[in-house]
């Protein structure tokens, strides 16, 4: 007989035995979640939350999509697991469906358990393909928490684990609102960011650089959509110097920006794409690398020295097949594009007009960020970079106000991200914007002149 489950019992077991990521264990108070469906989840007390975070920006088709749940159940009944060395129908079909949607000739798929492992393997492939060791990545970035991925990461989560010996060099990517290049227009920002990257390559020695890795649209670091021409310019620099171009689409892929892959907006083809999260909405852990023909050919007769026990796990691949097919059949990518253009973009622009705390709004599809500031004129952030404790109080109060109203936000540093599922309806998006409007009054209290 199953004992009666309560929020208190779930939380007590969690506190006794679960060690949480990125947290001081004694200072956190995890919400005990009883269930979820579509764009909402709820606790054991019946409090319902509109999920404007898509958990970790991964439940792209929402919670408990019936077609994906059924596919996992059916696969579990038929074949739960099989080693990666075998050919499995559902694994091959997942790879085919992904390859159909990647740009150019990225037609081979190496499966991993998640995004960080995808980045690890993409970097390894690039180094083996070129015979070089250095990898360049942007300061405002997040690429994962494993050894190479955390060193590639630009945000402060890297600092405690940075070995300073991983062969990684960081550079400044384009970010007009806080331009490191003193640019006044998107065109200037693009030109100067590319010149800076070209100089970095020159001074590091082009012959020593294996790869440049970029998030097509940086995610946790702030959803800075690249200016027109930037990704094409990086592609040209890579071609000029024989450098592998890796695009990290772990967060931005599979409908998030209103396209199958974010890079589709700029018509650029990298050499490698890393993916995870939205490929099956996180229902079962899955990630991977899509390889160009040239890089795949490197390992045609030379063994690739990498692999995972659960690479292409049948349950995860079944979830991916069902997710991609559901997205196609139900027009989910188009829905993300439409809701972004017709509801979220104008709605956030309106909030920026009315709230002194909103310094900038940026994004596309269902992938948006609001940069919160103390002063719109000086652009001083609402909280300092990497603030914690009392210094982070304004953002903590804002996040608490969101949750109290039934909106679950994605908050990082001085930003709140608007990242609902790609299946979000117009009514749900408007509900979320109204709740955000209310919560921003809390942030407004911390602005100059308030």
Plain-language structure description:
The longest helix is centred in the last third of the chain and has 23 residues. The protein starts with 6 loop residues before the first helix and ends in a 6-residue tail after the last helix. The strands form 3 sheets. It has a 7-stranded mixed β-sheet with strand order 4-10-9-8-7-5-6, sandwiched between helices. Strands 11, 12, 13, 15 and 16 form a 5-stranded antiparallel β-sheet that branches. 49% of the residues are buried. It is built from 13 helices and 16 strands. 38% of the residues lie in helices and 17% in strands.
List the helices and strands and how they pair.
Layout: H1 7-17, E1 33-37, E2 40-43, E3 48-51, H2 54-57, H3 66-78, H4 89-101, E4 108-112, H5 115-130, E5 134-138, H6 147-152, E6 168-171, H7 186-204, E7 209-215, H8 230-241, E8 244-248, E9 272-275, E10 287-291, H9 293-298, H10 314-329, H11 332-354, E11 358-364, E12 367-375, E13 380-381, H12 393-405, E14 407-408, E15 410-412, E16 415-418, H13 426-444
Question: What's the short version?
Answer:
With about 450 residues, the protein is of the alpha/beta class.
Strand content: 15-25%
Look at the helices and sheets and give the structural class: alpha/beta
| Shape designation | globular
Order of helices and strands: HEEEHHHEHEHEHEHEEEHHHEEEHEEEH
Helical content (DSSP H or I, runs of 4+) = 25-40%
Q: What gap, in angstroms, lies between the N and C termini? A: 57 Å
Indicate the low-confidence ranges by residue numbers.
Answer: none
Quote the average pLDDT: 97
DSSP helical segment count: 13
Largest sheet: 7 strands, mixed
Provide the gyration radius in Å.
Answer: 22 Å
Number of strand segments: 16
What is the strand arrangement across the widest sheet? 4-10-9-8-7-5-6
